[in-house]
Amino acid sequence: MGMGPSMGGGRGMVPGRSAVHGGIDPDKARLPKGLVRRVWREVAGPYRGQLVLLLFTITMSSALVVLPARLIQPIVDAISDGGSGAADTVTRFALLLVGIAVIGAGFSLWQRYLSARIGELLIYDLRRMLYDHVQRMPLAFFTRTRTGALISRLNNDVIGAQRALTGTFGTLAANVVQVVVAVGAMLAIEWRLTLLSLAVLPVFVLLAKQVGRRLQLLTRESMQLNADMNNVMTERFNVAGAQLVKLFGRADDEQATFGERARHVADIGIRSAIVGRVFFVLLGFVGALGTALVYLIGGRLALDGQLSPGDVVSFAALLGQAYQPLAALSNAPVEVLTALVSFDRVFEILDLRHPIADREGARTLTEPRGEVTFSGVSFAYPSAADSSLASLEQGWTAVLDATPGEEVLHEVSFAAAPGQTVALVGPSGAGKTTILNLVPRLYEVTSGAVRIDGLDVRDLTLSSVGAAVGVVSQDPHLFHDSIRANLRYARAAATDAEVEAACRAAQIHDVIAQLPDGYETVVGERGYRLSGGEKQRLAIARVLLKNPAIVVLDEATAHLDSESEAAVQLALRTALAGRTSLVIAHRLSTIVEADLILVIADGRIVQQGTHAELVGAEGIYADLARTQFRQPAPS
Ligand SMILES: Nc1ncnc2c1ncn2[C@@H]1O[C@H](COP(=O)(O)OP(=O)(O)OP(=O)(O)O)[C@@H](O)[C@H]1O
Ligand SMILES: [Mg+2]
Question: What is the pTM of this model?
């Protein structure tokens, strides 16, 4: 549908601007200009033909709703006049009413079919677009965004947007048609009476303006409160969150927090309902006044013989048919705006730039040798305003901080030749993980360059960099799926034999084979049914299947029992053989075997060399070697 990353000139991620969208400051709650045009052009595109057809069915069925009111006149007049043809006339019109009902029902069904079809497909389109756009956001976005708020966008707002298009605009069209047909019929009966009964119109409009704005604000706020509530759930209802709640015995507090969020949702629901109802009660009252006026004046005209009794009854019925849609229409600007809030919130996400994306003409890295060089790399984590949206991060009151993060890496330079092992050591918070994250381009350097085979990673396609670099993190993530499916995630085409071979090499095959369902065993969310060491070996097997030229590895800091430790060591030896590897090492054995050791402190390389060179020299390395490195497990 042509809604690529470049669409709309990238409205998001501009400091201050995002805060406006998340906020509900009445003066700023206005929707962006051209929103409707954008919806029509970019979202409604493939459905324009069907939307026109929908409009036709709406027109027909709405006209057929009004028509019976007009037919009251000949029937009532025939009854009050009596005479020879009266019985025939009554029968004829009664049959006509049945006919109209049947045709009206047909159009109504057709209309429903069309609106359901357009609506559901629209939801499908928007969900797919949002999903794809979000999954291509850089890691920084996910470290900041509240998952619940994001999921709420993909659910509630998408449905809201669909309602806007098929519901709100459909109702709008139906109301316009009803008003036009009813007022036309009224004019045909008595034009002065028509003008008189429409004199109450300005009151409708005035009321609508008053209430409209308020209702729109309430809707936006309600969407945001719903997102807050969802977020509490998504954060707590996963293994890590649930474990935290239990370990700290916070169930009662959690209940209170959730209760408070849910209560806000309930309160705003009540407020919206009351505001909406007050509006309709007032409108109903105004409508009743108009009807009374028709009987008062129309009745006199009938007594003077200027109108027939049928005219008066028919006119009153038509007026009823006109007031109801008029009431709805006077509220239309509000409803349209409210409905468009959802579109705005959907576009807000689609407009987020993808700061880490393939550059134009990006090259594909084929058959990488696996040389990794850092030249003068400095790095600061992106600011909040640069990586997220206020409404996704903190809720609707927030304004995101635009000050860039402090620089955490300064002028880091080193080179790893193909097949070499580079060990990174240094105190906690020194920047080791940050350095590793720059290799697969999870983040973008602030200055300097990261190169693979001499090519800047920013000039390569993301997918080929991804294929060249395999990552084993400290706490590897597994999807809630079978072990086999988790392994195949690395290479969908891998045969069972290849999967098994990788697991043997990673020293995990025997463990898997002993599980009741073997490779079909489902590992829970985050793989919590496996031990830490088993999970790391599974992650190593996954990387082996991918067969990358470069492996990046964050050694587990948690103590493994000596058997697991030995297994992990052996697995690593296989995994790293013949590949360039960057390893954050805690085990002396890994460090001693490394071709190059980088000692990192405060975001700088303070020492580098081999173990033999460094252990003799005074410095951080010698201290670390004495106090921190774990000796190989006795075997
Ligand atoms: N996502 C992030 N956003 C902002 N700052 C971060 C982020 N991740 C890490 N930092 C900061 O960057 C610095 C380096 O962190 P890093 O995780 O690279 O340290 P490390 O050497 O891996 O430490 P450890 O040995 O404890 O894992 C720290 O000051 C940390 O607070
Ligand atoms: Mg780390």
Answer: 0.76
